[in-house]
Specification:
three-stranded antiparallel β-sheet, set domain protein methyltransferase, domain 1, alpha+beta, four-stranded antiparallel β-sheet, 16 strands, set domain protein methyltransferase, domain 2, protein-lysine N-methyltransferase activity, SET_dom_sf
Length: 474
């Protein structure tokens, strides 16, 4: 494999050399440098102020030329000069035309170019060397099975499982698309001479997932040097990133920073503890809430419309809990599809497509549901809206109860010697944060349920249902 086996194309360079690389390629710095934060060396590299920095008076702290930005557009430019990169991007088809697909292929190509056992493949570019400065992040995809067991009962456990499956599908897609390209077969896939493995794909994914930022006009991309700034949310965020009129990347000062202080950006204040570990491998210091959780939800097996609902669903199969200003809120498109049925007005038909095939068409009364997200707006207009809300609240409360039961049953087992302290502490903290948030969500759902049960439309509906049940019994 290129990264972790017989040869190493992911050769590492010390971060102390990054400033020289940046200066050579036209990156400019204004009062900042790379290095460990004094007193917090164990946190790794950071962007540190070399003098007192004053907001609204400073030019960009870092200015990155647009040609150095690892974006979908620039990869196309690189591919014009690199026929091997072009071959792979064309071979993987639609996947290579996505930002994620293009960036991961590009990163693998840089490791291939740098591999000492591979000759005359690819074209060197400034980012070939930059990739070597990027640290390996201990994301959960690199945790052992024993370490992942400590995530039992958290929302991160199914997320990691799904990520593994997704990465495997991508890796096999790349393999099947490129194994007939001569140099790919020889250097990547051959049983004897091939050097690429699934671990390399995971490594490229971790680099992109932990460092991608969304820039105006560019979308998701990797921004050399600026992506060394660490995360801090809320008032602790000291800087922000932007692009100028020429498409160059900029790190701009938001708040005053004393000499020796850390220049921080936000990776997203709304991201929950689960997503922070999943994408970045850490939980922010001082975080006292899980912030956000996504709980998956299954359509009951005894629902006669289950196959049709699964066929037409376009929403994430579950619901999201968010902690906003101390109150637990929920959001979902999927749950509304689960809680309504034929007697309410939901219907399905087989529709013939242009090419002669057939597909399932969903309708709410006379309205066609081209996407699941439209269902709620129709339900809100119904006289039984409170009834549908009550069904949704009870369904989600039961799901929260089940998650709480799993967390309580797992408890807090001690760490064995084979489990690394980092993953163990992260898992322990995540369980604690999610447990507390789920307890609050349970209370919130109970209050909403009691309020809805007091609704006139719900009481009328329940009275009618009771009368029909007694009549059927008679």
């Amino acid at each position: 494999m290129i990264g972790l086996g017989r040869v190493d194309g992911w050769l590492k360079r010390p971060v102390e050399e990054l400033s020289a690389w940046a200066a050579f390629h036209g990156v400019t710095f204004n009062g900042v440098k790379f290095g460990p934060l004094p007193g917090f060396e164990e946190r790794g590299s950071a962007v540190v102020a070399t003098r007192d920095l004053t907001a609204n008076r400073e030019e960009p702290l870092i200015l990155v030329p647009r040609e150095l930005i690892l974006s979908r557009q620039n990869i196309e430019v690189f591919a014009k000069a690199d026929k091997h990169l072009r071959e792979v991007l064309d071979a993987v088809g639609d996947f290579g035309r996505t930002t994620r697909g293009a960036v991961l292929i590009f990163l693998l190509m840089q490791a291939t170019i740098s591999c000492p056992d591979i000759q005359e493949i690819g074209v060197l570019n400034p980012l070939t060397e930059y990739v070597k400065f990027l640290p390996d992040e201990l994301l959960p995809t690199f945790w052992t099975e024993e370490e992942l067991e400590f995530l039992t009962g958290t929302t991160l456990r199914p997320a990691v499982r799904a990520k593994f499956n997704s990465l495997l599908r991508e890796f096999e897609t790349v393999r099947s698309a490129t194994e007939n390209i001569g140099w790919c077969q020889r250097y990547w896939w051959d049983d004897d001479t091939g050097l690429l493995s699934f671990a390399d794909w995971m490594r490229a994914d971790a680099m992109y997932r932990s460092r991608a930022l969304e820039f105006p006009g560019l979308g998701d991309c990797m921004m050399p040097c600026i992506d060394f700034a660490n995360h801090a949310s809320g008032d602790a965020t000291r800087a922000y990133y932007e692009t100028d009129g020429d498409g160059n990347g900029m790190l701009l000062l938001r708040k005053d920073i004393p000499a020796g202080g850390e220049v921080t950006i936000t990776y997203g204040d709304e991201k929950g503890a689960c997503e922070s570990i999943f994408s970045y491998g850490f939980i922010e210091d001082g975080l006292d809430s899980a912030r956000a959780m996504f709980l998956d939800l299954q359509i009951p097996d005894d629902d006669p419309l289950r196959p049709a609902k699964l066929a037409v669903n376009t929403a994430a199969p579950g619901f999201r809990l968010s902690d906003k200003q101390g109150k637990i809120e929920w959001d979902t498109d999927y749950v509304w599809l689960v809680v309504v049925n034929e007697e309410d007005g939901l219907d399905f038909k087989l529709k013939q497509t242009i090419d002669g095939g057939r597909e399932v068409q969903s309708l709410w009364k006379e309205h066609e549901l081209t996407e699941t997200g439209k269902l709620r707006q129709y339900l809100e207009q119904e006289a039984l809206w409170d009834v549908y809300r009550l069904r949704a609240v009870v369904l989600m409360q039961n799901r929260v109860d089940a998650q709480l039961e799993t967390l309580h049953a797992f408890g807090n087992p001690p760490r064995s010697r084979s489990v690394r302290e980092g993953p163990w502490r992260l898992a322990e903290r995540l369980r604690s944060l999610e447990l507390a948030m789920l307890e609050r969500a349970k209370t919130e759902f109970e209050e909403q349920k009691l309020a809805l049960l007091d609704s006139e439309s719900v009481r009328s509906y329940l009275r009618l249902a009771d009368e029909q049940e007694q009549e059927d019994f008679t």
